[in-house]
Amino acid sequence: MFEKSDPTPLVAIEDELLQEKNLKLYIKREDLIDPEISGNKWRKLKYNLIKAKEQGKEIVLTFGGAYSNHIAATAAAAKRFGFHAIGVIRGEELNENSNPTLRKAHENGMQLLFVSRPDYMFRTSPHWLSMHQQEYSAFIIPEGGSNHLAIQGVKEILNEIEIDFDYITCPVGTGGTLAGLASGLHPHQKALGFASLSGEGYLEKEVGQLLSPEFHSRKEIIHDYDFGGYAKHDPKLIEFIQEFYNKHQIALDPIYTGKMMYGLYDRIKKDKFESGKTIIAVHTGGLQGIAGFNEKYGLELKA
Ligand SMILES: Cc1ncc(COP(=O)(O)O)c(C=O)c1O
Protein backbone atom coordinates (compact mmCIF):
# COMPACT_ATOMS: atom_id res chain seq x y z
CA MET A 1 0.00 0.00 0.00
CA PHE A 2 1.29 3.47 -0.93
CA GLU A 3 4.39 2.00 -2.55
CA LYS A 4 6.38 4.36 -4.76
CA SER A 5 9.84 3.84 -6.11
CA ASP A 6 11.02 7.29 -7.22
CA PRO A 7 11.15 10.60 -5.39
CA THR A 8 8.94 13.30 -6.88
CA PRO A 9 10.99 15.65 -9.12
CA LEU A 10 12.72 18.72 -7.70
CA VAL A 11 12.58 21.26 -10.51
CA ALA A 12 14.83 24.34 -10.64
CA ILE A 13 12.95 27.51 -11.63
CA GLU A 14 14.77 29.91 -13.93
CA ASP A 15 13.62 33.48 -13.67
CA GLU A 16 15.10 36.97 -14.10
CA LEU A 17 13.74 38.01 -10.71
CA LEU A 18 15.56 35.14 -9.00
CA GLN A 19 18.79 36.03 -10.78
CA GLU A 20 18.44 39.67 -9.83
CA LYS A 21 17.87 38.80 -6.15
CA ASN A 22 20.50 36.04 -6.16
CA LEU A 23 18.06 33.38 -4.93
CA LYS A 24 17.62 29.75 -5.91
CA LEU A 25 14.08 28.43 -6.18
CA TYR A 26 13.04 24.82 -6.70
CA ILE A 27 9.58 23.31 -6.90
CA LYS A 28 9.07 19.89 -5.33
CA ARG A 29 6.53 18.42 -7.74
CA GLU A 30 4.30 16.55 -5.33
CA ASP A 31 1.51 17.15 -7.82
CA LEU A 32 3.16 14.42 -9.92
CA ILE A 33 3.12 11.78 -7.16
CA ASP A 34 -0.05 10.10 -8.43
CA PRO A 35 -2.77 11.03 -10.92
CA GLU A 36 -5.58 10.72 -8.37
CA ILE A 37 -4.07 10.76 -4.87
CA SER A 38 -2.31 13.99 -5.53
CA GLY A 39 0.32 15.99 -3.68
CA ASN A 40 0.09 16.31 0.06
CA LYS A 41 -2.93 13.97 0.11
CA TRP A 42 -0.78 10.96 -0.72
CA ARG A 43 1.56 11.85 2.12
CA LYS A 44 -1.23 12.54 4.60
CA LEU A 45 -3.34 9.50 3.80
CA LYS A 46 -0.48 6.99 3.70
CA TYR A 47 -0.08 6.26 7.43
CA ASN A 48 -3.77 6.83 8.11
CA LEU A 49 -4.77 4.03 5.76
CA ILE A 50 -1.94 1.79 6.94
CA LYS A 51 -3.24 2.26 10.50
CA ALA A 52 -6.83 1.61 9.35
CA LYS A 53 -5.70 -1.71 7.79
CA GLU A 54 -3.76 -2.65 10.95
CA GLN A 55 -6.91 -2.05 12.97
CA GLY A 56 -8.87 -4.28 10.59
CA LYS A 57 -11.18 -1.43 9.55
CA GLU A 58 -13.05 -1.75 6.26
CA ILE A 59 -14.63 1.70 6.28
CA VAL A 60 -12.93 5.09 6.36
CA LEU A 61 -14.94 8.19 7.11
CA THR A 62 -13.79 11.73 6.51
CA PHE A 63 -14.98 15.31 5.99
CA GLY A 64 -14.70 18.04 3.40
CA GLY A 65 -16.23 20.89 1.45
CA ALA A 66 -17.80 20.71 -2.00
CA TYR A 67 -14.51 20.99 -3.94
CA SER A 68 -12.27 19.27 -1.41
CA ASN A 69 -9.06 17.76 -2.75
CA HIS A 70 -8.98 15.62 0.37
CA ILE A 71 -12.41 14.12 -0.42
CA ALA A 72 -11.32 13.42 -4.01
CA ALA A 73 -8.07 11.79 -2.90
CA THR A 74 -9.63 9.76 -0.07
CA ALA A 75 -12.25 8.37 -2.44
CA ALA A 76 -9.56 7.32 -4.93
CA ALA A 77 -7.26 5.87 -2.24
CA ALA A 78 -10.09 3.95 -0.58
CA LYS A 79 -11.06 2.41 -3.91
CA ARG A 80 -7.47 1.49 -4.73
CA PHE A 81 -6.62 -0.01 -1.35
CA GLY A 82 -9.89 -1.82 -0.70
CA PHE A 83 -11.84 0.35 1.76
CA HIS A 84 -15.38 1.62 1.64
CA ALA A 85 -15.26 5.41 1.99
CA ILE A 86 -17.81 7.74 3.52
CA GLY A 87 -17.47 11.48 2.92
CA VAL A 88 -19.35 13.89 5.16
CA ILE A 89 -19.81 16.93 2.93
CA ARG A 90 -20.50 20.50 4.08
CA GLY A 91 -23.70 21.71 2.36
CA GLU A 92 -27.10 20.01 2.59
CA GLU A 93 -28.11 21.63 -0.73
CA LEU A 94 -25.47 19.64 -2.65
CA ASN A 95 -25.68 16.26 -4.33
CA GLU A 96 -23.26 13.90 -6.11
CA ASN A 97 -23.76 15.76 -9.39
CA SER A 98 -23.11 19.24 -8.01
CA ASN A 99 -19.56 19.49 -9.38
CA PRO A 100 -16.72 17.41 -10.90
CA THR A 101 -15.10 16.72 -7.48
CA LEU A 102 -18.23 15.19 -5.97
CA ARG A 103 -19.08 13.37 -9.21
CA LYS A 104 -15.68 11.71 -9.31
CA ALA A 105 -15.72 10.84 -5.59
CA HIS A 106 -19.13 9.24 -6.08
CA GLU A 107 -17.90 7.34 -9.17
CA ASN A 108 -15.00 6.08 -7.08
CA GLY A 109 -17.53 4.54 -4.72
CA MET A 110 -17.53 7.10 -1.91
CA GLN A 111 -20.80 7.31 -0.04
CA LEU A 112 -21.58 11.01 0.33
CA LEU A 113 -23.48 12.33 3.35
CA PHE A 114 -24.54 15.96 2.88
CA VAL A 115 -24.92 17.90 6.11
CA SER A 116 -25.90 21.46 6.94
CA ARG A 117 -23.20 23.98 7.85
CA PRO A 118 -24.21 23.99 11.55
CA ASP A 119 -24.08 20.17 11.66
CA TYR A 120 -20.72 20.18 9.92
CA MET A 121 -19.35 22.14 12.90
CA PHE A 122 -19.69 18.92 14.93
CA ARG A 123 -16.94 17.26 12.89
CA THR A 124 -14.43 17.70 15.71
CA SER A 125 -16.79 16.99 18.62
CA PRO A 126 -15.66 13.83 20.47
CA HIS A 127 -19.27 12.78 21.11
CA TRP A 128 -20.32 13.10 17.46
CA LEU A 129 -17.16 11.32 16.32
CA SER A 130 -17.59 8.39 18.66
CA MET A 131 -21.25 8.09 17.58
CA HIS A 132 -20.16 7.84 13.93
CA GLN A 133 -17.30 5.53 14.81
CA GLN A 134 -19.76 3.14 16.43
CA GLU A 135 -22.46 3.48 13.78
CA TYR A 136 -20.14 2.69 10.89
CA SER A 137 -17.26 1.02 12.74
CA ALA A 138 -15.15 3.37 10.67
CA PHE A 139 -11.61 4.63 10.85
CA ILE A 140 -12.11 8.38 11.09
CA ILE A 141 -9.74 10.74 9.29
CA PRO A 142 -10.12 14.42 10.19
CA GLU A 143 -10.88 17.16 7.66
CA GLY A 144 -7.92 17.68 5.34
CA GLY A 145 -6.39 14.46 6.70
CA SER A 146 -4.40 16.48 9.23
CA ASN A 147 -3.44 14.44 12.29
CA HIS A 148 -0.27 12.93 13.74
CA LEU A 149 -0.24 10.13 11.18
CA ALA A 150 -0.32 12.76 8.43
CA ILE A 151 2.73 14.48 9.92
CA GLN A 152 4.69 11.23 9.66
CA GLY A 153 3.87 10.98 5.95
CA VAL A 154 4.54 14.64 5.11
CA LYS A 155 7.96 14.44 6.78
CA GLU A 156 8.95 11.87 4.16
CA ILE A 157 8.96 14.67 1.55
CA LEU A 158 12.12 15.96 3.25
CA ASN A 159 13.90 12.60 2.97
CA GLU A 160 13.64 12.93 -0.80
CA ILE A 161 15.36 16.33 -0.96
CA GLU A 162 19.07 15.90 -1.45
CA ILE A 163 20.17 19.54 -1.61
CA ASP A 164 20.62 21.90 1.33
CA PHE A 165 18.01 24.65 1.54
CA ASP A 166 17.06 27.53 3.80
CA TYR A 167 13.30 27.78 3.35
CA ILE A 168 10.59 25.35 2.41
CA THR A 169 7.12 26.68 1.61
CA CYS A 170 3.63 25.23 1.35
CA PRO A 171 0.03 26.42 1.37
CA VAL A 172 -1.89 26.17 4.66
CA GLY A 173 -5.47 24.90 4.90
CA THR A 174 -5.82 22.67 7.95
CA GLY A 175 -2.14 22.95 8.87
CA GLY A 176 -0.95 19.33 8.65
CA THR A 177 1.39 19.90 5.72
CA LEU A 178 3.17 22.82 7.36
CA ALA A 179 3.44 20.96 10.67
CA GLY A 180 4.86 17.90 8.88
CA LEU A 181 7.48 19.92 7.04
CA ALA A 182 8.49 21.98 10.10
CA SER A 183 8.86 18.85 12.21
CA GLY A 184 11.62 17.49 10.00
CA LEU A 185 13.77 20.62 9.62
CA HIS A 186 17.26 21.40 10.89
CA PRO A 187 17.68 24.47 13.10
CA HIS A 188 18.96 26.67 10.23
CA GLN A 189 15.90 25.93 8.10
CA LYS A 190 12.41 27.41 8.17
CA ALA A 191 9.02 26.29 6.86
CA LEU A 192 6.87 29.14 5.53
CA GLY A 193 3.17 28.44 5.22
CA PHE A 194 0.97 30.68 3.07
CA ALA A 195 -2.55 30.77 4.51
CA SER A 196 -5.18 30.02 1.89
CA LEU A 197 -7.99 31.16 4.18
CA SER A 198 -8.44 33.93 6.73
CA GLY A 199 -7.50 32.39 10.02
CA GLU A 200 -4.92 34.40 11.87
CA GLY A 201 -4.48 32.94 15.34
CA TYR A 202 -6.66 29.93 14.54
CA LEU A 203 -4.20 28.43 12.05
CA GLU A 204 -1.25 29.00 14.40
CA LYS A 205 -3.16 27.09 17.08
CA GLU A 206 -4.01 24.22 14.71
CA VAL A 207 -0.42 23.85 13.51
CA GLY A 208 0.89 24.25 17.06
CA GLN A 209 -1.23 21.33 18.24
CA LEU A 210 0.32 19.04 15.64
CA LEU A 211 3.89 20.08 16.32
CA SER A 212 6.14 19.24 19.26
CA PRO A 213 7.39 22.36 21.07
CA GLU A 214 11.00 22.20 19.86
CA PHE A 215 9.82 22.73 16.28
CA HIS A 216 7.47 25.68 16.89
CA SER A 217 10.12 28.23 15.93
CA ARG A 218 10.81 26.44 12.62
CA LYS A 219 7.54 27.52 11.08
CA GLU A 220 5.84 30.77 10.23
CA ILE A 221 2.41 31.38 8.73
CA ILE A 222 2.05 34.28 6.33
CA HIS A 223 -1.47 35.69 6.18
CA ASP A 224 -1.04 38.43 3.58
CA TYR A 225 -2.03 36.41 0.53
CA ASP A 226 -5.35 34.76 1.40
CA PHE A 227 -7.16 37.03 -1.08
CA GLY A 228 -10.01 37.57 1.38
CA GLY A 229 -10.62 33.95 2.35
CA TYR A 230 -11.00 30.37 1.28
CA ALA A 231 -11.53 30.04 -2.51
CA LYS A 232 -11.67 33.86 -2.81
CA HIS A 233 -9.58 35.22 -5.65
CA ASP A 234 -9.12 38.25 -7.83
CA PRO A 235 -7.94 38.96 -11.41
CA LYS A 236 -4.33 39.56 -10.22
CA LEU A 237 -4.12 36.04 -8.84
CA ILE A 238 -5.65 34.49 -11.95
CA GLU A 239 -3.28 36.45 -14.18
CA PHE A 240 -0.29 35.35 -12.09
CA ILE A 241 -1.33 31.68 -12.39
CA GLN A 242 -1.71 32.00 -16.17
CA GLU A 243 1.63 33.77 -16.58
CA PHE A 244 3.38 31.22 -14.38
CA TYR A 245 1.99 28.44 -16.53
CA ASN A 246 3.04 30.14 -19.76
CA LYS A 247 6.57 30.67 -18.46
CA HIS A 248 7.22 27.38 -16.64
CA GLN A 249 4.53 24.94 -17.85
CA ILE A 250 3.55 24.24 -14.25
CA ALA A 251 -0.16 24.48 -13.43
CA LEU A 252 -1.15 26.05 -10.11
CA ASP A 253 -4.60 26.05 -8.53
CA PRO A 254 -6.26 29.29 -7.37
CA ILE A 255 -7.11 27.99 -3.88
CA TYR A 256 -3.76 26.74 -2.57
CA THR A 257 -0.61 26.62 -4.70
CA GLY A 258 -1.51 29.73 -6.74
CA LYS A 259 -1.76 31.82 -3.57
CA MET A 260 1.47 30.35 -2.23
CA MET A 261 3.47 31.11 -5.38
CA TYR A 262 1.93 34.57 -5.72
CA GLY A 263 2.90 35.32 -2.11
CA LEU A 264 6.36 33.86 -2.52
CA TYR A 265 7.09 35.95 -5.62
CA ASP A 266 5.75 39.06 -3.92
CA ARG A 267 7.99 38.49 -0.91
CA ILE A 268 10.97 37.92 -3.19
CA LYS A 269 10.21 41.24 -4.93
CA LYS A 270 9.99 42.94 -1.53
CA ASP A 271 13.43 41.58 -0.48
CA LYS A 272 12.09 39.40 2.33
CA PHE A 273 14.76 36.78 1.56
CA GLU A 274 18.47 37.45 2.00
CA SER A 275 20.65 37.12 -1.07
CA GLY A 276 22.17 33.67 -1.61
CA LYS A 277 19.33 31.67 -0.01
CA THR A 278 17.73 28.55 -1.43
CA ILE A 279 13.96 28.12 -1.31
CA ILE A 280 11.95 25.00 -2.02
CA ALA A 281 8.25 25.46 -2.78
CA VAL A 282 6.19 22.31 -2.32
CA HIS A 283 3.60 21.90 -5.07
CA THR A 284 0.88 20.24 -3.03
CA GLY A 285 -1.26 19.26 -6.01
CA GLY A 286 -4.95 20.09 -5.91
CA LEU A 287 -5.28 20.40 -9.65
CA GLN A 288 -8.44 18.27 -9.69
CA GLY A 289 -10.30 21.23 -8.17
CA ILE A 290 -9.59 23.45 -11.17
CA ALA A 291 -12.34 21.91 -13.32
CA GLY A 292 -14.99 22.85 -10.76
CA PHE A 293 -13.45 26.29 -10.27
CA ASN A 294 -13.45 26.98 -14.01
CA GLU A 295 -17.04 25.77 -14.24
CA LYS A 296 -18.16 28.00 -11.36
CA TYR A 297 -16.37 31.18 -12.39
CA GLY A 298 -16.26 30.80 -16.18
CA LEU A 299 -12.44 30.64 -16.26
CA GLU A 300 -10.06 28.59 -18.39
CA LEU A 301 -7.22 27.78 -16.02
CA LYS A 302 -4.96 24.88 -17.06
CA ALA A 303 -4.93 21.79 -14.86
C1 LIG B 1 -3.71 21.23 -2.86
C2 LIG B 1 -3.65 21.54 -1.42
N1 LIG B 1 -2.58 22.18 -0.96
C3 LIG B 1 -2.47 22.50 0.33
C4 LIG B 1 -3.45 22.20 1.23
C5 LIG B 1 -3.27 22.60 2.62
O1 LIG B 1 -2.78 21.55 3.38
P1 LIG B 1 -3.11 21.45 4.91
O2 LIG B 1 -4.58 21.18 5.00
O3 LIG B 1 -2.29 20.32 5.37
O4 LIG B 1 -2.76 22.74 5.52
C6 LIG B 1 -4.59 21.49 0.80
C7 LIG B 1 -5.68 21.07 1.68
O5 LIG B 1 -6.06 21.55 2.67
C8 LIG B 1 -4.69 21.16 -0.57
O6 LIG B 1 -5.74 20.51 -1.05
Rg on CA atoms, Å? 19 Å
* CATH class assignment of the largest domain: Alpha Beta
The molecules bound to the chains, other than polymers, are: pyridoxal-5'-phosphate
Element order, helices and strands?
EHEHEHEHEHHEHEHEHEHHEH
Stretches where pLDDT falls below 50 for ≥5 residues? none
Mean pLDDT: 96
Backbone shape: globular
Major beta-sheet overview: 6 strands, mixed
Alpha-beta classification: alpha/beta
CATH architecture of the largest domain: 3-Layer(aba) Sandwich
Count of beta strands: 10
Total number of domains? 2
Instruction: Strand order, main sheet: write it out.
Output: 1-2-10-7-8-9
Number of helices: 12
CATH topology of the largest domain: Rossmann fold
Jot down its keywords.
single chain; 303 residues; alpha/beta; Rossmann fold; 2 domains; 6-stranded mixed beta sheet; 4-stranded parallel beta sheet; 12 helices; globular; binds pyridoxal-5'-phosphate; ACCD_DCysDesulf; TrpB-like_PALP_sf; Pyridoxal-phosphate dependent enzyme; pyridoxal phosphate
Describe the structure.
Residues 7-285 form the Tryptophan synthase beta chain-like PALP domain. With 303 residues, this protein is an alpha/beta fold. It folds into two domains: 10-36 and 147-297, Rossmann fold, CATH 3.40.50; 40-145, Rossmann fold. It is built from twelve helices and ten strands. The protein has helices at 16-20, 40-54, 69-81, 100-107, 117-120, 126-136, 148-159, 176-182, 202-210, 235-248, 257-269, 289-297, and strands at residues 10-12, 24-28, 59-64, 84-90, 111-115, 138-140, 167-172, 190-195, 219-222, 278-282. A six-stranded mixed beta sheet has the order 1-2-10-7-8-9. The protein has a four-stranded parallel beta sheet with strand order 5-4-3-6, sandwiched between helices. Helix 8 links the parallel strand 7 (167-172) and strand 8. Helix 7 (148-159) crosses helix 8 (176-182). The two termini are 27 Å apart. Residues 39-40, 69-70, 144, 146, 171-178, 256, 284-286 line the site of pyridoxal-5'-phosphate (PLP).
